[in-house]
């Protein structure tokens, strides 16, 4: 393994970047399996409300729609950051990363607000099997979004300090894969958890 | 430095197309849930179908997955993951629904 650094002479070969991208892709696939199993668990436990509140008592359609719009738009703005990266425009990369971060933070704030409201109403994860599965699935996604936000902050600092060097842009590519992946998982969450919960 | 490989199919047009399609495919299931216009079963089918199409839209327009442009090992990994997910979700639901049917129904 060649050492990683910003000194051009020490830069790893092109293939090494491809291998990293593929390795990150494999990680995302394993993460997809984790989420798939949490979805299966949720689906099995969705009816076990133990006399407590059910989805239609707890979920708000406009709230979930707002969260969805924030996350979907942040996927678009990350795409715009990727385009700025292709163009080698450092300031635009930083600007779009900033917008993406704010949208992601907004999503997380809405989710925490929802969780807080549910827990104070006595509908916490300890109330029923349904709520245990709900909190496990949705907060696992929320934790991923939090990790994504930290990742965006770290990359923002790296772009400021190191510029759009080859290692930095290769990391930005992997961050992009991660961020778009989280939006895909969210499609599953609103389609399996929130919308059927409201209809039930 | 040109980064031709990563830029495969990455244009403003592709992101905007993906965004608009995703918005429509989000508005449809939310609209169905909001109006309650369909019966329970057809509503669930419509929500599920919109979700599957939207996932494909994201893979195509945001992750730029293409049958030709994407390295084969990545496609193989995603296909294998899809098979595992189908086996595990399908298997879990099959077993648990069967158990439910035999013990409570």
Helix-strand layout with pairing:
The complex is a heterodimer of chains A (200) and B (105).
Chain A: H1 14-45, H2 55-58, H3 61-86, H4 90-120, H5 129-162, H6 166-199
Chain B: H1 12-35, H2 40-62, H3 72-103
Assess the beta-strand content of chain A as a share of residues: under 5%
Query: What average pLDDT do the residues of chain A reach?
Result: 94
Number of strand segments of chain A: 0
- Please state the structural category of chain B: mainly alpha
Low-confidence stretches of chain A at least 5 residues in length (pLDDT < 50)? Answer: none
Rounded radius of gyration of chain A (Å): 19 Å
Alpha-carbon distance between the two ends of chain A: 55 Å
Number of separate strands of chain B:
0
Name of the level-1 CATH class of chain A: Mainly Alpha
Q: Any idea what the CATH architecture of chain A is? A: Up-down Bundle
Low-confidence stretches of chain B: 1-7
Question: What percentage of the residues of chain B does DSSP assign to strands (E)?
Answer: under 5%
Description of the molecule:
- The complex is a heterodimer of chains A (200) and B (105).
- Chain A is 80% helix and 0% strand.
- With 200 residues, chain A is mostly helical.
- Chain A has a single domain (25-31, 59-199), classed as Four Helix Bundle (Hemerythrin (Met), subunit A) (Up-down Bundle).
- Chain A is elongated and about 60 Å long.
- The mean pLDDT of chain A is 94.
- Chain B has two domains: 1-70; 71-105.
- In chain B, 75% of the residues lie in helices and 0% in strands.
- The longest helix of chain B has 32 residues, at 72-103.
- Chain B starts with 11 loop residues before the first helix and ends with a helix.
- Chains A and B meet through helix 1, helix 3 and helix 6 of A and helix 1, helix 2 and helix 3 of B.
């Amino acid at each position: 393994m060649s050492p990683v650094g910003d000194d051009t002479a020490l830069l790893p070969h092109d293939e090494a970047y491809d291998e990293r991208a593929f390795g990150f892709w494999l990680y995302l696939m394993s993460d997809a399996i984790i989420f798939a199993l949490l979805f299966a668990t949720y689906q099995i436990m969705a009816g076990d409300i133990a006399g407590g509140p059910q989805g239609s008592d707890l979920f708000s359609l406009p709230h979930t729609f707002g969260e969805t719009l924030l996350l979907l738009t942040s996927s678009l703005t990350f795409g715009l950051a990727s385009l700025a990266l292709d163009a080698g425009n450092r300031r635009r990369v930083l600007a779009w990363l900033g917008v993406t971060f704010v949208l992601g933070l907004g999503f997380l704030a809405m989710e925490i607000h929802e969780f807080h409201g549910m827990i104070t109403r006595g509908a916490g994860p300890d109330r029923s099997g349904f709520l245990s599965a709900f909190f496990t699935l949705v907060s696992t996604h929320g934790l991923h979004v939090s990790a994504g936000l930290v990742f965006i902050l770290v990359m923002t600092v790296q772009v400021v300090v190191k510029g759009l060097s080859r290692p930095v842009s290769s990391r930005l590519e992997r961050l992009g894969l991660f961020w778009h992946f989280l939006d895909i998982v969210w499609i599953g969450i609103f389609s399996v958890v929130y919308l059927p919960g409201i209809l039930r | 430095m040109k980064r031709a490989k990563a830029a495969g199919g990455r244009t403003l047009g592709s992101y905007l197309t993906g965004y608009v399609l995703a918005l429509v495919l989000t508005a449809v299931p939310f609209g169905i849930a909001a109006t309650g216009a369909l019966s329970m079963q057809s509503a669930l089918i419509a929500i599920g179908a919109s979700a599957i199409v939207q996932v494909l839209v994201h893979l195509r327009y945001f992750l730029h997955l293409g049958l030709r442009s994407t390295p084969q090992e990545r496609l193989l990994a995603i296909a294998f993951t899809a098979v595992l997910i189908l086996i595990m979700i399908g298997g879990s639901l099959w077993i648990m629904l069967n158990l439910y049917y035999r013990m409570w129904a």
